[in-house]
Amino acid sequence: MTNTEAYNQRLLEIKRQIGNIEVPVSPFLMNGEFSRLPDVLDSDEKIIHAVTGNWEGRKQGLLVATDKKLIFLAYGIFNSFEEIINYSVINSISCNPGVFYADISIFTSEKNILIENVNNKKNALSFCNKMDEILSGSKKGESKPINSNQNSEPDIMDQLKKLGELREKGILTDQEFTEQKKKLLDKL
């Protein structure tokens, strides 16, 4: 089998995996992202879930959970972005649903990542639930809870603190910080 044939076979297998998990992610709309997956995934790596959203509010792309890691891919005409996050560095994940869309916050030992405007809140909650299963099983006997759809005051206060940290580090602009802060305060 040639390299091209192996690549095409793996790409077809990846598209089937995403189709089997019944998530509203279009291989046509995310063509650049899908075309990178055979190169980014190990040959035996399985896709567990996927969502589309905006990395830190700037890069529209595909967030993929596999049985080994999280991957965010964003490919455009003029630029591309790729981030791989090993499960061992993830401390927690928070899913904050809105009316139609949701935001997913990923808190790692290295940084905090905000995936905004996830394609629909049902899919985002499903993604967070799958991540809960993955993270619970990734460490022997150690459970890592994911906060999904919680509106408790301490959780919102923690999120406000994290937003402030993201602004201080220059990851969020003042305008992005203000918008996210307003969304959180509206939940109180």
Automatic annotation (TrEMBL):
It holds the Pfam family bPH_3. Residues 158-185 form the SHOCT domain. This is SHOCT domain-containing protein. Signal peptide: none annotated. Residues 138-157 are annotated as: Disordered. InterPro entries: SHOCT, YokE-like_PH. Residues 41-131 form the YokE-like PH domain. It comes from Chryseobacterium ginsengisoli.
